[in-house]
Amino acid sequence: MLENLSRAYSTTRRFSEFLCEPLEIEDYVIQSMPDASPTRWHLAHTTWFFETFVLASSETNYRPINPHFQSLFNSYYNSVGEQFPRSRRGLLTRPTVAEVYEYRHEVDRRLLHCLEGLSGDEAERIGHVLELGIHHEQQHQELILTDLKYLYSCNPLWPVYRPSPPEDRRPRANPKQAAWSAHRSGIVEIGHRGEAFCYDNEQPRHNALLHAFEIQDRLVTVGEFMEFMRDGGYRRPDLWLSLGWSTKNEQGWSAPLYWVENDGLWSQFTLHGLRELNPHEPVCHVSYFEADAFARWSGSRLPTEQEWEHVAVSAQREPQPHPKETAHFHPRPLIDDGDRIAQLFGEVWQWTSSPYTPYPGYRAAMGALGEYNGKFMCNQYVLRGSSRATPSGHARPTYRNFFPPDARWQFSGFRLTRDVSAVS
Amino acid sequence: MLENLSRAYSTTRRFSEFLCEPLEIEDYVIQSMPDASPTRWHLAHTTWFFETFVLASSETNYRPINPHFQSLFNSYYNSVGEQFPRSRRGLLTRPTVAEVYEYRHEVDRRLLHCLEGLSGDEAERIGHVLELGIHHEQQHQELILTDLKYLYSCNPLWPVYRPSPPEDRRPRANPKQAAWSAHRSGIVEIGHRGEAFCYDNEQPRHNALLHAFEIQDRLVTVGEFMEFMRDGGYRRPDLWLSLGWSTKNEQGWSAPLYWVENDGLWSQFTLHGLRELNPHEPVCHVSYFEADAFARWSGSRLPTEQEWEHVAVSAQREPQPHPKETAHFHPRPLIDDGDRIAQLFGEVWQWTSSPYTPYPGYRAAMGALGEYNGKFMCNQYVLRGSSRATPSGHARPTYRNFFPPDARWQFSGFRLTRDVSAVS
Amino acid sequence: MLENLSRAYSTTRRFSEFLCEPLEIEDYVIQSMPDASPTRWHLAHTTWFFETFVLASSETNYRPINPHFQSLFNSYYNSVGEQFPRSRRGLLTRPTVAEVYEYRHEVDRRLLHCLEGLSGDEAERIGHVLELGIHHEQQHQELILTDLKYLYSCNPLWPVYRPSPPEDRRPRANPKQAAWSAHRSGIVEIGHRGEAFCYDNEQPRHNALLHAFEIQDRLVTVGEFMEFMRDGGYRRPDLWLSLGWSTKNEQGWSAPLYWVENDGLWSQFTLHGLRELNPHEPVCHVSYFEADAFARWSGSRLPTEQEWEHVAVSAQREPQPHPKETAHFHPRPLIDDGDRIAQLFGEVWQWTSSPYTPYPGYRAAMGALGEYNGKFMCNQYVLRGSSRATPSGHARPTYRNFFPPDARWQFSGFRLTRDVSAVS
Amino acid sequence: MLENLSRAYSTTRRFSEFLCEPLEIEDYVIQSMPDASPTRWHLAHTTWFFETFVLASSETNYRPINPHFQSLFNSYYNSVGEQFPRSRRGLLTRPTVAEVYEYRHEVDRRLLHCLEGLSGDEAERIGHVLELGIHHEQQHQELILTDLKYLYSCNPLWPVYRPSPPEDRRPRANPKQAAWSAHRSGIVEIGHRGEAFCYDNEQPRHNALLHAFEIQDRLVTVGEFMEFMRDGGYRRPDLWLSLGWSTKNEQGWSAPLYWVENDGLWSQFTLHGLRELNPHEPVCHVSYFEADAFARWSGSRLPTEQEWEHVAVSAQREPQPHPKETAHFHPRPLIDDGDRIAQLFGEVWQWTSSPYTPYPGYRAAMGALGEYNGKFMCNQYVLRGSSRATPSGHARPTYRNFFPPDARWQFSGFRLTRDVSAVS
Asked: Which one of A109, B287, C31, D233 is most buried, by most CB atoms within 10 A?
């Protein structure tokens, strides 16, 4: 097992650096808002994770690489010690980007060397933490992209992260018409099963009772969202949750994040630059509030996370790897290929109507790693699926992503559901 | 039906005024924080509700009593029109308290007169709204008490709302030891049944799947909460939700609201004045965050709202009327009278672990009254039961009260639950 | 001397209560913004001043009337002890208004009794503090009016403090054309002279060097200010101080405070109710920033406080008593009566271009009363003259009033000055 | 004249780049607080100044180098157009540092080329603006240093800008004892005279009346300031202006900025790293509030700006050039060399008690350059002299620097003054 993990470790670590290839040094250091972190911080924090939770407990005669890093790059692990304040991550010019890469490479070297010597129980224990660290770094790979996108969007020069990949310019005919797929009521099993990796919040596997529902076989599109806007969607309080309405007003929202109007013409900022809106693309960068308002406007609702998981599992859908070469970080219009249920993975995360709560019988992991998930189960909503920015191998049908209902800088969209009784 | 309702209307209206008997004019006008409203505003707003939703649609040749009142006393009904900003309710010195009472009495007079002439469908339609208005006013009766308590607590003179009732000074022997009562897993029915009044959020009645659990037969007490405090409960981040921990730090919480320390001695401010802590009382005025942290510290958890409702329904418990004469507005220590499950109603509202969400198949009412409940289903938690401040006739086993997790000025406490698997 | 002071004391104390005659209890308790205080607080604080600085040091066997009042009604005297936070003055419902009047009357009774027994040095020492207390209460009399005006203006019902006095409805012909009056450069004496009362900030009397200037013989009018507005005065950054421009934008100013536009028609809220703008009235309720911008627009400037004082002293002008019966609290249009220099006193306070700084050789008084003036000499501007709200006997040519440059709720206007070199 | 100016231009431009030699790319981009700007922004903004005010009006067929730069690098010139918000200067990762240097060099090339062709009136007009631009860039050279210092100070790694120069480690014997030097009252001339460059705020030259005073012949030292601290200087409200006291409490000040306490031992962060406090150094990085409180504590006061200027002019003191090679950016202890008045220039800027106001007869320049000074004359205080960070050739006796009274990140100290009457 450790051998495979060593390989996965190296692959994952390299992919983080691949994502940074197009960056200027300037792009690494700025914190564009409290929720986002500088790229350099992501690179250092994921390394800190391996140093703190793997190296420190498995290396003989371990000594901290830099004692300051223990707090500088600790995100929120109170059990590990003090944390440099999150809102001040963008005030650090040192360690420099070069020094952060050195830090990464030293940890890589020492950690791989250290793994070679392990065996038995020790190997198993360390293997579990190592695996968690790999998935942790993958989460930050997505954050590197979403945080960079937000950062670039603050600049009137609209920097381009990478040019559009060729496939992105291919014409796409026959967009799929939305259809409803029906599911009966009954008890289903929810949560992770088997030996493969999952986070603690996907467990324990347990029974859940579903009520009959219908779900759309594709994501809501840009074109549909524009209809909502034309129908006064952002001006009708009856469509919104009360907190959504006040948030919208305070933040001045009148379209999804990154949409830019110029003389009545809409375009959107993407990691591949500013471009025209494509009505057949899934709508992206909407908050839970906007998704919920759209659903109410359309006479339907968002699915619960249990409904979503049941649909994905019944369809036997698994996320596909993104070919790294494409480096295509924007959701794509859907061609109708007759698929019964499409776009579950790999385009945009999908808001569900489920507040992020512990599963029945949930136990957080022991020790510091118990802070990974459980303590955030309040005032957040679950998103399911995965996005164009999610690294290959990271998504799965039981995966529970979560963000506060006003978050818009993630690649977040939605799909519609309705009660069956509402149909007849 | 209208005859009974007329009687209930008059009783309810009089009870609001009974609650205000001890007040000075000064007590009516101040808004002590954004979440609280001046008493005068409560008196006027509940009247506005009857004027707007009953009188305006049932009185012949109806004309507004004062056109300004339409926005001044509209709380959050966007469908009805503009609202005077909530945070500025305390800037109004006019209409005076006397004028608000005149307004109340004029609406009472006209409304009762108007009801006499109704019959048939019209009577039924109006009857439903009238009933809602009565329950609405009862909710504000509780808010009058909680908002006054907060207001008085800002004053170093510690004003007394009413002197302690005699029963409050009676000695109480044999406090009840907590015991766990077990419930099997299975499908249960949740939600309101029958013809009696309920809010739309208690419907539709539906099946829910419970997992085996045990619940304590009484509320957590002041004495138990002090143990938590002595054990560093407010200083240990591992016990808290992340948002709870930051809220606690920002707000500087180190004890429940209204607890006052003086030279190591704790007392608490009540509507009957400042008094010593009684360890056998239910702990009160804690946030969801504190209830949740206590539960984690004790190795248990809070019940879901479905668990709570199932327990109350199985025990065939119904809330008892408060004799108005007692006017006792502080939770009481529990004597062990052998009851299998105690303190479900009438002491403190009980935090559940359930975010406030729509029931499966939930439909908000049509029109403006649809704004009553549904639009608040976000970032709030359900509380069950009722408190010393809840008026007689207002509580029921299916009732869903809700507040944000940081709210402490309500009479809020909690009871513990645990998974059965955790026991063996 | 004490006999006269006793009389002045009683007169002043009665005048505060005269000002409150039209008030409802509700009007006494609300704090409408951090800079304003509830009327009840003014009544209590001025009484606290006499209790603390006179009674406590002159009464045999003095004991505090209510120990809580020492901090509740201490404004900013750190030497005296803790202060109840200024921003929370509006959270107190007790002591009630009636109790505050009782407090006033008890202090009056005891203080007058106590004065009778004094003589010699003791009488002189106490006499000085008593005199200061009288002028202190007069300052709060003006604040009672300005704070009430602000409070009423928050209410869409536009409460009327007192009906307009008859003189206010008299037609007024021949408004005065503005003319410039010239003053040569030279050394002049500035500051208070003689035995009569003054504040410490008016001393020591000292030489100041004036440069030749011209000053307008009347105040800037509403009509002139509207020209400025029509000429884009609120939209041209070149006319404003940088801090003024950002303040204006943040606060959303587009006219003087209390001006209300309705369908292109301007009216203004006054203590006598809402009324049409009168173009011949002095403009009032403008900030320093607006006065300064108007002056720049008109090619002139505001006078320094030394220029203003020199003009007033040379003209041998003294403020006139307001007949209490008129109770006319709004600045009046000026009839041309041939006066060489008009409206120095009794209409509006006049912004000068002088930051509020200590005079050369200034010494604050010893002890707590040294906190009266000196510690506020930062980021404020001096206003000279007096207003319709200034009580009789309070104004004098050397009086230095002061407010931050963004303050608008005082009766503040201005008059224009220019350099002589700018004329030729 | 243009030839000399061309030389001065090139020298100044090179010096900005010399200051940046020790920087990593990371150091250029971060905005550490709203008052500070990224180094890159300073480099670009000073270039924008030359492009906008010189190149655009003197180059034939001028076209903007990058139209976006017009708003991106406009600081506060409303007459020129929109400004990218000051508080968001740190969100820009592009143009990169390299591109900013290219921008600088292109403007340099074109501007120098353009100057060669000028003569006559045009040369004179452009010459004046060019000279202003040079002095403007010098101001930003000081800001580059102060903003960098603040930025580095946010980092627990305490980055070193440059190592200490050798002279900084030389032992220094015989610190100077403070002595008072007396000045008689009388009329003096204040303001710039002659043809050499000055800002508009130093004019017109005019008469001012001074009252007799005494001034200390050296700056207040670290050692003296520690006495103030030991005597409770930061805990005694009687020593502070009211606004200073509340600012101190809100900001949590208990020592000058950059002082760091560790186990009772004080050190300070400098551009040459963290080092022990030297009691003989001038105290630095104090606000006006702290300087004023110290002066009150010591029974003296701060000088007015007229007093300061008169002292400097009478002593015939002129600032000395800093040898660039030393690159010593921290104030130095004073050796007693018998000088009658020392440390007027080149160590720390000196707070005066003078609010920043226009001189009698002041006229702002015409057009956009009129926004350079005048519009900031509100709620700021004048500082005189110059600091270790002021570039050679920038200081002069009539120079008026200005900052708000709470500013601490400049190299600001003070010297004491007292009234003569206070002495005898």
From this structure: B287
Subunits adjacent to chain C (3 or more Cβ pairs under 8 Å): B, D
pLDDT at D423 > cutoff 50: no
Contact status, residue B342 vs residue B334, Cβ threshold 8 Å: yes
Residue C77 has a pLDDT of 92
In one letter, which amino acid is C32? S
Residue at token pair 């001038």 = D282
Asked if A154's CB is within 8 angstroms of D92's CB, the reply is: yes
Instruction: Give dist(CA A394, CA D60) in Å, integer.
Output: 59
Residue showing tokens 């006139």: C320
CA of B71: which chain C residue's CA is closest?
C156
Cβ neighbour number for residue B366 with a 10 Å cutoff: 7
Taking CA–CA distances from A82, the nearest residue in chain B reads B237
The answer, yes or no, to whether residue D422 has pLDDT greater than 60, is: no
Q: How many other CB atoms are found less than 10 A from the CB of residue D193?
A: 14
- Predicted local confidence at residue B304, as pLDDT: 98
As assigned by CATH, the class of the D2-153 domain is mainly alpha
Q: Which two tokens stand for residue C131?
A: 């005199």
A237 chain-B contacts, CB cut-off 8 A: 78
Whole-angstrom Cα distance, residue D359 to residue A276? 56
Any idea what the Cα angle at residue C387 is, between residues C385 and C392, rounded to 5°?
90
What end-to-end distance do the CA atoms of chain B give, in Å? Answer: 53
pLDDT, tens digit, for every residue of A113-150? 999 988 889 999 999 999 999 999 999 999 999 999 99
Chunked into runs of 10 residues, chain C (424 residues) has average pLDDT values of: 91 97 98 96 98 94 95 92 92 97 98 91 92 97 98 97 80 81 97 95 97 97 98 97 97 98 93 95 98 98 98 89 79 87 96 98 88 94 97 96 98 97 50
Contacts of D378 in chain C (CB under 8 A): 241-244, 405
> What's the pLDDT at A423?
43
Closest CA to C334 of C227, C224, C177: C177
Residue D156 preceded by cis peptide, ω within 30: no
Separation between Cα atoms, residue D236 and residue D220, nearest integer Å: 20
Contacts of C88 in chain B (CB under 8 A): 154
Contact A90 D30 (CB under 8 A): yes
Residues of chain C with CATH 1.20.120: 2-153
Q: Give the whole-angstrom CA distance, residue A161 versus residue A23.
A: 8
Whether residues A419 and B360 touch (CB distance < 8 A) is answered with: yes
Q: Which residues belong to CATH 3.90.1580.10 in chain C?
A: 166-419
Q: Which helix (H) or strand (E) holds A42?
A: helix A39-50
Among candidates D91, D95, D151 on the partner chain, residue whose Cβ is nearest the Cβ of A93: D151
Amino acid at D95: P
What whole-number distance in Å separates Cα of residue A182 and Cα of residue A419? 10
Tell me whether residues D357 and C360 touch, CB distance under 8 A.
no
What class is the A166-419 domain? alpha beta
Which whole number is the average pLDDT over D95-108? Answer: 98
How far apart are the CA of D241 and the nearest CA of chain C, in angstroms?
4
Kindly list the residues from chain D whose CB atom is less than 8 angstroms away from the CB atom of residue A151: 91, 93
User: How far is the alpha carbon of B242 from chain A, nearest alpha carbon, in Å?
Assistant: 5
d(CA C412, CA C283): 8
Contact pairs from chain A to chain D, CB under 8 Å = 79
- Confidence tier at A229 by pLDDT (50, 70, 90): very high
Chain B residue with Cα closest to C72 = B156
Separation in Å, CA of D382 to nearest CA in chain C: 13
The answer to whether the Cβ–Cβ distance between C187 and D209 falls below 8 Å is yes
Please state the pTM of the whole predicted model. 0.95
Is D170's pLDDT higher than 70?
Answer: no
Residue A55 has pLDDT above 90, yes or no: yes
